[in-house]
Amino acid sequence: MLRFIIRRSLLMVGTLFALLILTFVISHVAPGDPAALAAGPDATPDMIETIRKENGLDKPLPVQFLIYVSGVLQGDFGNSIHSGREVSRDLIQYFPATFELVLFSILFAILLGVPLGVLSAVKQNSWLDHTIRIISVSGVGVPMFWLGLMLQLYFALKLGWFPLGGQLDMMTDPPAPVTHLLVIDSLLRLNFAVAGEAFVHIILPALTLCFPALASIARINRAEMLETLNQDYITNARAQGISRFRIVGVYALRNAMLPTLSMIGLRFGWMLGGTVLVESVFDWPGVGLYAVQTAVASDFEPIMAVTLLLGFFFMLANFVIDICYGLLDPRLREA
Protein backbone atom coordinates (compact mmCIF):
# COMPACT_ATOMS: atom_id res chain seq x y z
CA MET A 1 0.00 0.00 0.00
CA LEU A 2 2.90 2.36 0.77
CA ARG A 3 4.36 1.91 -2.73
CA PHE A 4 0.92 2.61 -4.19
CA ILE A 5 0.66 5.89 -2.23
CA ILE A 6 4.19 6.95 -3.24
CA ARG A 7 3.50 6.30 -6.95
CA ARG A 8 0.28 8.29 -6.83
CA SER A 9 2.03 11.13 -4.95
CA LEU A 10 4.79 11.39 -7.55
CA LEU A 11 2.22 11.35 -10.33
CA MET A 12 0.31 14.20 -8.65
CA VAL A 13 3.49 16.29 -8.28
CA GLY A 14 4.37 15.79 -11.96
CA THR A 15 0.87 16.69 -13.08
CA LEU A 16 0.85 19.82 -10.92
CA PHE A 17 4.17 20.97 -12.41
CA ALA A 18 2.81 20.39 -15.92
CA LEU A 19 -0.24 22.47 -15.00
CA LEU A 20 2.06 25.24 -13.76
CA ILE A 21 3.92 25.32 -17.08
CA LEU A 22 0.72 25.22 -19.14
CA THR A 23 -0.96 27.98 -17.13
CA PHE A 24 2.11 30.21 -17.29
CA VAL A 25 2.43 29.86 -21.05
CA ILE A 26 -1.27 30.42 -21.78
CA SER A 27 -1.57 33.45 -19.50
CA HIS A 28 1.49 35.11 -21.03
CA VAL A 29 0.54 34.56 -24.67
CA ALA A 30 -3.06 35.74 -24.18
CA PRO A 31 -3.89 39.05 -25.89
CA GLY A 32 -3.77 42.22 -23.83
CA ASP A 33 -1.02 44.11 -22.04
CA PRO A 34 -1.49 43.86 -18.25
CA ALA A 35 0.93 46.74 -17.65
CA ALA A 36 -1.13 49.02 -19.91
CA LEU A 37 -4.38 47.91 -18.26
CA ALA A 38 -2.94 48.54 -14.79
CA ALA A 39 -1.60 51.97 -15.78
CA GLY A 40 -4.97 53.15 -17.08
CA PRO A 41 -6.15 54.71 -20.34
CA ASP A 42 -4.33 58.03 -19.76
CA ALA A 43 -0.93 56.55 -18.97
CA THR A 44 2.15 57.56 -20.93
CA PRO A 45 4.48 54.98 -22.50
CA ASP A 46 7.04 55.74 -19.78
CA MET A 47 4.52 54.96 -17.05
CA ILE A 48 3.57 51.69 -18.74
CA GLU A 49 7.22 50.72 -19.09
CA THR A 50 7.85 51.50 -15.41
CA ILE A 51 5.01 49.20 -14.35
CA ARG A 52 6.31 46.53 -16.70
CA LYS A 53 9.79 46.69 -15.14
CA GLU A 54 8.44 46.76 -11.57
CA ASN A 55 6.56 43.53 -12.22
CA GLY A 56 9.35 41.83 -14.18
CA LEU A 57 7.33 41.73 -17.40
CA ASP A 58 10.29 43.08 -19.38
CA LYS A 59 12.33 39.92 -18.72
CA PRO A 60 12.36 36.91 -21.10
CA LEU A 61 9.63 34.33 -20.49
CA PRO A 62 12.02 31.60 -19.24
CA VAL A 63 13.41 34.02 -16.64
CA GLN A 64 9.90 35.04 -15.58
CA PHE A 65 8.97 31.38 -15.27
CA LEU A 66 11.97 30.54 -13.07
CA ILE A 67 11.24 33.53 -10.83
CA TYR A 68 7.61 32.47 -10.57
CA VAL A 69 8.43 28.83 -9.74
CA SER A 70 10.90 29.96 -7.09
CA GLY A 71 8.21 32.13 -5.53
CA VAL A 72 5.56 29.40 -5.63
CA LEU A 73 7.89 26.97 -3.83
CA GLN A 74 8.14 29.59 -1.06
CA GLY A 75 4.40 30.21 -0.98
CA ASP A 76 4.69 33.53 -2.80
CA PHE A 77 2.38 33.94 -5.80
CA GLY A 78 3.52 37.49 -6.53
CA ASN A 79 1.49 40.69 -6.52
CA SER A 80 -1.58 41.59 -8.51
CA ILE A 81 -0.68 44.08 -11.23
CA HIS A 82 -4.18 45.51 -11.15
CA SER A 83 -4.60 46.07 -7.39
CA GLY A 84 -1.03 45.82 -6.11
CA ARG A 85 -2.11 43.40 -3.38
CA GLU A 86 -0.28 40.17 -2.60
CA VAL A 87 -2.06 37.35 -4.41
CA SER A 88 -1.53 35.00 -1.46
CA ARG A 89 -3.49 37.41 0.76
CA ASP A 90 -6.32 37.52 -1.76
CA LEU A 91 -6.43 33.71 -1.88
CA ILE A 92 -6.52 33.50 1.92
CA GLN A 93 -9.43 35.94 1.86
CA TYR A 94 -11.50 34.40 -0.95
CA PHE A 95 -10.64 30.71 -1.28
CA PRO A 96 -11.83 29.41 2.12
CA ALA A 97 -15.41 30.52 1.36
CA THR A 98 -15.36 28.65 -1.96
CA PHE A 99 -13.73 25.57 -0.45
CA GLU A 100 -16.27 25.45 2.38
CA LEU A 101 -19.13 25.77 -0.10
CA VAL A 102 -17.72 22.97 -2.29
CA LEU A 103 -17.03 20.80 0.77
CA PHE A 104 -20.64 21.00 1.95
CA SER A 105 -21.89 20.56 -1.62
CA ILE A 106 -19.98 17.34 -2.26
CA LEU A 107 -21.00 16.09 1.20
CA PHE A 108 -24.68 16.72 0.39
CA ALA A 109 -24.23 15.08 -3.01
CA ILE A 110 -22.74 11.92 -1.48
CA LEU A 111 -25.19 11.67 1.44
CA LEU A 112 -28.17 12.11 -0.89
CA GLY A 113 -26.91 10.65 -4.19
CA VAL A 114 -25.61 7.29 -2.97
CA PRO A 115 -28.78 6.31 -1.01
CA LEU A 116 -30.98 7.48 -3.88
CA GLY A 117 -29.00 5.32 -6.30
CA VAL A 118 -29.29 2.31 -4.02
CA LEU A 119 -33.04 2.82 -3.51
CA SER A 120 -33.58 3.25 -7.23
CA ALA A 121 -31.79 -0.04 -7.96
CA VAL A 122 -33.50 -2.00 -5.18
CA LYS A 123 -36.93 -0.65 -6.19
CA GLN A 124 -36.32 -1.03 -9.94
CA ASN A 125 -39.24 0.05 -12.18
CA SER A 126 -41.29 1.26 -9.20
CA TRP A 127 -42.68 4.79 -8.84
CA LEU A 128 -39.73 5.58 -6.56
CA ASP A 129 -37.27 4.42 -9.21
CA HIS A 130 -38.95 6.56 -11.88
CA THR A 131 -38.96 9.60 -9.59
CA ILE A 132 -35.25 9.26 -8.82
CA ARG A 133 -34.46 8.80 -12.51
CA ILE A 134 -36.36 12.00 -13.33
CA ILE A 135 -34.30 13.81 -10.68
CA SER A 136 -31.12 12.36 -12.21
CA VAL A 137 -32.01 13.59 -15.69
CA SER A 138 -33.09 17.00 -14.36
CA GLY A 139 -29.74 17.44 -12.63
CA VAL A 140 -27.98 17.46 -15.99
CA GLY A 141 -30.37 19.85 -17.74
CA VAL A 142 -31.38 22.40 -15.09
CA PRO A 143 -29.17 25.55 -15.14
CA MET A 144 -27.65 26.24 -11.73
CA PHE A 145 -28.39 29.97 -11.73
CA TRP A 146 -32.09 29.25 -12.41
CA LEU A 147 -32.23 26.61 -9.69
CA GLY A 148 -30.57 28.99 -7.24
CA LEU A 149 -33.08 31.74 -8.01
CA MET A 150 -36.02 29.35 -7.61
CA LEU A 151 -34.71 28.13 -4.26
CA GLN A 152 -34.30 31.73 -3.13
CA LEU A 153 -37.82 32.68 -4.24
CA TYR A 154 -39.51 29.72 -2.54
CA PHE A 155 -37.46 28.83 0.55
CA ALA A 156 -36.06 32.29 1.36
CA LEU A 157 -38.72 34.79 0.23
CA LYS A 158 -41.97 32.78 0.42
CA LEU A 159 -41.32 30.41 3.34
CA GLY A 160 -38.58 32.41 5.08
CA TRP A 161 -36.71 29.26 6.10
CA PHE A 162 -33.31 30.36 4.81
CA PRO A 163 -31.52 33.67 4.16
CA LEU A 164 -31.18 35.00 0.62
CA GLY A 165 -27.40 34.97 0.52
CA GLY A 166 -24.10 35.77 2.18
CA GLN A 167 -22.22 33.77 4.78
CA LEU A 168 -23.63 35.49 7.89
CA ASP A 169 -26.17 38.13 8.80
CA MET A 170 -24.88 41.68 8.49
CA MET A 171 -24.80 42.27 12.27
CA THR A 172 -22.99 38.99 13.09
CA ASP A 173 -19.24 39.05 13.64
CA PRO A 174 -17.33 35.98 12.36
CA PRO A 175 -15.16 34.05 14.85
CA ALA A 176 -11.41 34.44 14.97
CA PRO A 177 -10.04 32.29 12.11
CA VAL A 178 -8.44 28.93 12.79
CA THR A 179 -9.03 27.00 9.57
CA HIS A 180 -10.68 30.00 7.79
CA LEU A 181 -13.74 27.78 7.26
CA LEU A 182 -16.60 29.64 8.93
CA VAL A 183 -18.70 26.72 10.21
CA ILE A 184 -15.69 24.76 11.46
CA ASP A 185 -14.09 27.82 13.09
CA SER A 186 -17.35 28.61 14.88
CA LEU A 187 -17.50 25.07 16.25
CA LEU A 188 -13.85 25.17 17.31
CA ARG A 189 -14.49 28.45 19.14
CA LEU A 190 -17.58 26.86 20.76
CA ASN A 191 -19.72 29.60 19.23
CA PHE A 192 -22.65 27.38 18.34
CA ALA A 193 -24.99 30.27 17.55
CA VAL A 194 -22.70 31.54 14.78
CA ALA A 195 -22.07 27.96 13.60
CA GLY A 196 -25.81 27.38 13.23
CA GLU A 197 -26.26 30.69 11.43
CA ALA A 198 -23.39 29.93 9.04
CA PHE A 199 -24.79 26.45 8.35
CA VAL A 200 -28.24 27.86 7.56
CA HIS A 201 -26.65 30.35 5.15
CA ILE A 202 -24.72 27.65 3.29
CA ILE A 203 -27.60 25.20 2.76
CA LEU A 204 -29.25 26.82 -0.30
CA PRO A 205 -26.03 27.57 -2.25
CA ALA A 206 -24.66 24.11 -1.39
CA LEU A 207 -27.84 22.39 -2.58
CA THR A 208 -27.75 24.45 -5.79
CA LEU A 209 -24.12 23.58 -6.47
CA CYS A 210 -24.51 19.91 -5.53
CA PHE A 211 -27.60 19.16 -7.64
CA PRO A 212 -25.75 18.13 -10.86
CA ALA A 213 -23.29 16.05 -8.82
CA LEU A 214 -26.11 14.47 -6.81
CA ALA A 215 -27.88 13.49 -10.03
CA SER A 216 -24.73 12.01 -11.59
CA ILE A 217 -23.83 10.07 -8.45
CA ALA A 218 -27.36 8.66 -8.13
CA ARG A 219 -27.46 7.67 -11.80
CA ILE A 220 -24.11 5.89 -11.90
CA ASN A 221 -24.66 4.27 -8.51
CA ARG A 222 -28.02 2.91 -9.68
CA ALA A 223 -26.47 1.43 -12.82
CA GLU A 224 -23.62 -0.21 -10.91
CA MET A 225 -25.94 -1.53 -8.21
CA LEU A 226 -28.21 -3.13 -10.81
CA GLU A 227 -25.24 -4.83 -12.44
CA THR A 228 -23.80 -5.96 -9.12
CA LEU A 229 -27.10 -7.33 -7.79
CA ASN A 230 -27.25 -9.69 -10.81
CA GLN A 231 -23.82 -11.20 -10.12
CA ASP A 232 -23.48 -14.87 -9.16
CA TYR A 233 -21.97 -14.17 -5.74
CA ILE A 234 -25.02 -12.08 -4.82
CA THR A 235 -27.31 -14.95 -5.87
CA ASN A 236 -25.18 -17.30 -3.78
CA ALA A 237 -25.42 -14.95 -0.79
CA ARG A 238 -29.20 -14.91 -1.09
CA ALA A 239 -29.26 -18.70 -1.27
CA GLN A 240 -27.27 -18.89 1.97
CA GLY A 241 -29.95 -16.88 3.74
CA ILE A 242 -27.89 -13.74 4.30
CA SER A 243 -30.10 -10.77 5.11
CA ARG A 244 -31.11 -8.45 2.27
CA PHE A 245 -29.79 -5.45 4.16
CA ARG A 246 -26.31 -7.01 4.42
CA ILE A 247 -26.31 -8.11 0.78
CA VAL A 248 -27.28 -4.66 -0.49
CA GLY A 249 -25.47 -2.48 2.04
CA VAL A 250 -22.22 -4.43 2.29
CA TYR A 251 -21.59 -6.85 -0.57
CA ALA A 252 -23.25 -5.02 -3.47
CA LEU A 253 -22.62 -1.41 -2.41
CA ARG A 254 -18.90 -1.98 -1.85
CA ASN A 255 -18.36 -3.07 -5.47
CA ALA A 256 -20.79 -0.52 -6.86
CA MET A 257 -18.94 2.31 -5.12
CA LEU A 258 -15.78 1.96 -7.22
CA PRO A 259 -17.14 3.77 -10.33
CA THR A 260 -19.11 6.09 -8.03
CA LEU A 261 -15.88 7.20 -6.38
CA SER A 262 -14.52 8.26 -9.76
CA MET A 263 -17.62 10.36 -10.35
CA ILE A 264 -17.25 11.95 -6.90
CA GLY A 265 -13.66 12.95 -7.65
CA LEU A 266 -14.55 14.42 -11.04
CA ARG A 267 -17.54 16.31 -9.64
CA PHE A 268 -15.48 17.74 -6.79
CA GLY A 269 -13.04 19.24 -9.28
CA TRP A 270 -15.89 20.50 -11.45
CA MET A 271 -17.47 22.20 -8.43
CA LEU A 272 -14.24 23.99 -7.53
CA GLY A 273 -14.01 25.50 -10.99
CA GLY A 274 -17.73 26.11 -11.48
CA THR A 275 -18.82 28.16 -8.48
CA VAL A 276 -19.00 31.52 -10.27
CA LEU A 277 -22.75 31.44 -11.02
CA VAL A 278 -23.69 30.15 -7.58
CA GLU A 279 -21.49 32.72 -5.86
CA SER A 280 -23.08 35.45 -7.96
CA VAL A 281 -26.66 34.40 -7.16
CA PHE A 282 -26.08 33.96 -3.43
CA ASP A 283 -23.59 36.84 -2.97
CA TRP A 284 -20.99 34.33 -1.78
CA PRO A 285 -17.54 35.92 -1.25
CA GLY A 286 -15.53 33.20 -2.98
CA VAL A 287 -12.64 32.76 -5.37
CA GLY A 288 -14.86 32.28 -8.44
CA LEU A 289 -15.73 35.95 -8.85
CA TYR A 290 -12.16 36.91 -7.97
CA ALA A 291 -10.86 34.68 -10.78
CA VAL A 292 -13.26 36.19 -13.33
CA GLN A 293 -12.32 39.74 -12.38
CA THR A 294 -8.60 39.07 -12.68
CA ALA A 295 -9.06 37.23 -16.00
CA VAL A 296 -10.95 40.20 -17.45
CA ALA A 297 -8.12 42.49 -16.33
CA SER A 298 -5.46 40.13 -17.84
CA ASP A 299 -3.83 39.97 -14.41
CA PHE A 300 -1.31 37.12 -14.79
CA GLU A 301 -0.35 36.38 -11.21
CA PRO A 302 -3.87 35.86 -9.76
CA ILE A 303 -4.94 33.81 -12.80
CA MET A 304 -2.01 31.42 -12.39
CA ALA A 305 -2.42 31.25 -8.61
CA VAL A 306 -6.13 30.46 -8.77
CA THR A 307 -5.57 27.84 -11.48
CA LEU A 308 -2.79 26.18 -9.49
CA LEU A 309 -4.82 26.21 -6.29
CA LEU A 310 -7.91 24.72 -7.91
CA GLY A 311 -5.77 22.23 -9.82
CA PHE A 312 -4.01 21.16 -6.63
CA PHE A 313 -7.25 20.48 -4.77
CA PHE A 314 -8.70 18.71 -7.80
CA MET A 315 -5.64 16.44 -7.92
CA LEU A 316 -5.75 16.00 -4.15
CA ALA A 317 -9.37 14.87 -4.37
CA ASN A 318 -8.49 12.32 -7.05
CA PHE A 319 -5.48 11.21 -4.98
CA VAL A 320 -7.83 10.48 -2.07
CA ILE A 321 -10.16 8.64 -4.46
CA ASP A 322 -7.22 6.52 -5.66
CA ILE A 323 -6.39 5.61 -2.06
CA CYS A 324 -10.02 4.65 -1.44
CA TYR A 325 -9.87 2.54 -4.61
CA GLY A 326 -6.85 0.72 -3.22
CA LEU A 327 -8.61 0.09 0.08
CA LEU A 328 -11.78 -1.23 -1.57
CA ASP A 329 -10.03 -3.35 -4.20
CA PRO A 330 -6.50 -4.55 -3.22
CA ARG A 331 -5.85 -5.64 -6.86
CA LEU A 332 -5.65 -1.97 -7.89
CA ARG A 333 -2.68 -1.33 -5.60
CA GLU A 334 -0.43 -3.06 -8.13
CA ALA A 335 -1.70 -0.94 -11.05
Overall description:
This protein has helices at 2-29, 34-39, 45-54, 61-73, 87-122, 127-141, 144-158, 182-188, 192-229, 232-239, 244-273, 276-281, 287-296, 300-328. With 335 residues, the protein is mostly helical. Helix 1 runs antiparallel to helix 14 and helix 5 (87-122) runs antiparallel to helix 6 (127-141). The protein starts with a helix and ends in a 7-residue tail after the last helix.
Q: Which descriptors would you attach to this protein?
A:
mainly alpha; 335 residues
Shape: globular
SSE pattern: HHHHHHHHHHHHHH
Cα-atom radius of gyration: 24 Å
Structural class: mainly alpha
Low-confidence stretches: none
Count every beta strand, where a strand is a DSSP E run of 2 or more residues.
0
> Roughly what percent helix?
over 70%
Biggest beta-sheet profile: none
What name goes with the CATH superfamily? Answer: MetI-like
CATH topology-level fold name: MetI-like fold
Please sum up the structure shown:
The chain is an all-alpha fold.
Write the layout of secondary structure elements.
Blueprint: H1 2-29, H2 34-39, H3 45-54, H4 61-73, H5 87-122, H6 127-141, H7 144-158, H8 182-188, H9 192-229, H10 232-239, H11 244-273, H12 276-281, H13 287-296, H14 300-328
Helix pairs in contact: 1-14, 5-6, 5-9, 5-11, 6-9, 7-9, 8-9, 9-11, 11-14, 13-14
